[in-house]
Amino acid sequence: MIIAVDAAGGEHAPREIVKGAIKAAQEYDVNIVLVGNKSILHMLAGHYMNKLNIKIIDAPEVITYNEPPLKAVRSKPNSSIVIGINMVRDGAASAFISAGNTGAVLCASLLNLGKIKGIDRPALSSFLNISPPIPALLIDAGANANCHPNNLVQFAQMGSVYTKHILGISAPSIGLLNNGEEEIKGNRLAQETHKLLKKLNGLNFIGNIEGQDIMKGKANVIVTDGFTGNIVLKTIEGMGDTLANVARQAGQIFSIAYHLRGRELLRDIGLGSLVKRVDYTEYGGAYLMGVNGNIIVSHGRSQAKTIKNAIGLAKQTVERDICRIIKEESYDQTD
Asked: For tag attachment on the chain, is the N or C end more exposed, with fewer CB atoms within 10 Å?
């Protein structure tokens, strides 16, 4: 298994990306290809290359966050994003991970990998580890701001497949995110999607779920459009950042009073696991479902821990042959 990693993408690239890749190579025993500025990457990772089966591929161009995705992909064929995705297309890598320009990753994946037959729109799927013991999968987490009901039906089908094989749940429960539990609630998209999902055989559709149900772990798969899903994801990330800061400050105060280190105190009062569950670094990234290849999109603020976990997620996805399984499924084509 070879996993290509965009070493030029993200706010903390390349140093944190390289650190995460090194940790992943040590922990997961995978072959990693770092894609980026060759001379800089040799300086950062050269000592580990032979010991840990890490290789470097030069990518002299970088797509930045403020560039229009489609134009950037077409004008920069030697960028780390395009080269990494082409490695997946050509079979030189089993998966590609990037914390760079998400729009560019989506565009390059669509242009160079193509969609799986029967899938109208690929979707980003992100695990939310907020309600133990089983994470929930949010789909779409930001790829499609405007959706049709049939798109959400396909998101539910792909999300069910992914959750079934990654988490080992035989019949994952599917919840449609809405502003009420009743079938008549919501906008036209929610109402029409509910009707389609209710008719569809083979899915464990439990109906509408509301925002508060996300934290309760009511559904294994949470289905919504990418506009709403991205807001949900970033709200949880913001809550995690805030909670971590509050806990850190409280820990500093109480650790002095109780002669405990902050981390030990958080564990003793039960906050340690909660902070961990709402920490976006724990789940690594979002899997892009519906394209002909394994692509993981990580947070732009990703540091070493996030990249390591993203590589772990990519490894699971490849080992369980998720892309092939999704290809073999039949998808509803109702308009």
From this structure: C
